[in-house]
Amino acid sequence: MQTINRFLYGPTPEERVRAWQGKLRSESRQLDREMRQLEAATAKARTTVKQLATKGDVKSARILAREVVRSNKQKDRLSVSKARLGSIGTQLQQQLAMVKVTGSLQKSTEIMKLSNSLVKLPQISQAMREMSMEMTKAGIMEEMLEDTLQMDEDEEIEEEADAEVDKVLFDLTNGKLGLAGSVGTELPTPQDQLEDDEAERVMEEARKQLNGLLSG
User: Fold this and answer.
1) For residue 195, how far is the Cα from the chain centroid?
2) What's the rounded Cα separation, in Å, for the pair 54 and 52?
3) Which of 61, 122, 141, 161 is disulfide-compatible with 53, CB 3.0–4.6 A?
4) Would you state the pLDDT for residue 173?
5) What angle do CA 170, 64, 124 make, to 5 degrees?
6) CA 207 to CA 210: how far, in whole Å?
7) Within 13 Å and on the Cβ side, how many CA atoms surround 5?
8) E-assigned strand segments in 96-135
């Protein structure tokens, strides 16, 4: 009989909630992996920024420091998103308790609000869209409006980055940012040129690694 009901009416509310909770745990683990990778790449970039600033190459240090700023903001965003996934899981657990009383899933504005914010995150956007569609069909959510999915994070980063870059450089050079720019006027030697070329290569490698993670 249970098999026939599942065929006719689909999964039970309990089964739907368990499946969603499993997906939430899976997406949370993915965010953990992203944060670990970002943390490793950021640590490498911070070391390179300090080396560049110490050698007096403040221009290159600033370029890479901007990526460090973006990386820090991305880590914050991922951490908040993971917390939101956990909040949806808690809300779903409460839904399970209500199912025992009412026999059906109830509409939740909190789940809808959290889901709308998570769809904006590229790393889990597709999974959250699919889950949101399933929850809409189940009666937990209303259909999301497209204008809620527009991203404005990049604009915020640009507005704040300039002020943050100096702070990052100041911190990474132990307050010696001014000294980093006071280089001599002697002509560069071949050895100096080799060191500059190597610093440029390392800076570009670190920048590309961070960009790859930030745009992933």
Assistant:
1) 34
2) 5
3) 61
4) 67
5) 115
6) 5
7) 6
8) none
